[in-house]
Amino acid sequence: MKKFLLDLEVKSKAWLNPAYALLVLTSPDRLPPILPGQFVEVRVDGSPATFLRRPISVHQVDYEKNELWLLVQVVGDGSRRLAELEAGDVLNVILPLGNGFSLPPRKDARVLLVGGGCGIAPLLYLGAYLRQQGYARCDFLLGARTAADLLQLDEYRRYGQVFTTTEDGSHGERGFVTHHPVMHEGGIDMIYACGPTPMMKAVARLAHEAGIACEVSLENTMACGLGACLCCVTDTTEGHVCVCTEGPVFNINILKWQI
């Protein structure tokens, strides 16, 4: 897909909790086509400690409103600078980057989208896209440490049933996403997952054992997004590849997690 270097205007910024901010971006021109699972590279201005662009998953795209949503987790000076942007500020963005999720083979397939931490971000747009494409059985399984860390549940409910887990039991099932009964009840045709690597490996193992097709979105460090810096290389059954260009979405059968 063609890549664009754009100056996008911050339409709104909202703090979802002390660690996460939602940026809604817009443009005077129509946003280019973006697929679920693709990401953007943003330039961080005003941060002496941030020299390279930062990769951020596409959280949502609303073509009717010409909006691009980015979910920013504050973990350092660069992400803090991004979260401090306000309406009217401009963010320089390269998009769309990487390869997105594939579609289930059948319209009547039951699909489960599993996310943890900031890994929930690409699943909102994926859920919206699947519903737009006519897939009716789209459920979400979202995990977090506490209820306060579960974000935008009402947005996810617009596109499917939402199941939750929290490590302290304050919302949904107590434990990790792999402990939730929906992961073990059968009848699931496709699983998509994004989140911490141990979580994705655990989900991939369950999917592999159950014979369920599964794709995961890796969150390797991607400094350039174009395959030039080699920061994000991962080992696969097809050799060492750059996650930013060959992924970030991979079928678990290509990864060496099950070997």
Describe the structure.
This protein has 259 residues and is α/β, with parallel strands linked by helices. Helices cover 16% and strands 35% of the residues. The protein has 5 helices and 16 strands. It has helices at 77-83, 121-132, 153-157, 197-210, 243-246; strands at residues 4-17, 20-26, 39-42, 54-57, 60-62, 67-73, 90-97, 110-116, 137-144, 162-166, 173-174, 190-194, 213-217, 233-236, 239-242, 249-251. The protein has a 7-stranded antiparallel beta sheet. The protein has a 7-stranded mixed beta sheet with strand order 11-10-9-8-12-13-16, sandwiched between helices. The longest helix is centred in the last third of the chain and has 14 residues, at 197-210. It is globular and about 50 Å long.
Q: What would a concise description of this structure say?
A:
The chain has 259 residues and is α/β, with parallel strands linked by helices. Helices cover 16% and strands 35% of the residues.
**In DSSP terms, counting alpha (H) and pi (I) runs of 4 or more, how many helices?**
5
N-to-C SSE series? EEEEEEHEEHEHEEEHEEEHE
Which ranges are low-confidence, i.e. pLDDT below 50, for 5 or more consecutive residues? Answer: none
Straight-line N-to-C gap: 32 Å
Shape: globular
Helix coverage percent: 10-25%
Strand content: 25-35%
Q: What structural class do helix, strand and pairing data support?
A: alpha/beta
**Overall radius of gyration:** 18 Å
The major pleated sheet works out as:
7 strands, antiparallel
Record the strand order, biggest sheet. 4-3-7-1-2-6-5
Mean pLDDT: 94
DSSP summary, beta strand count: 16
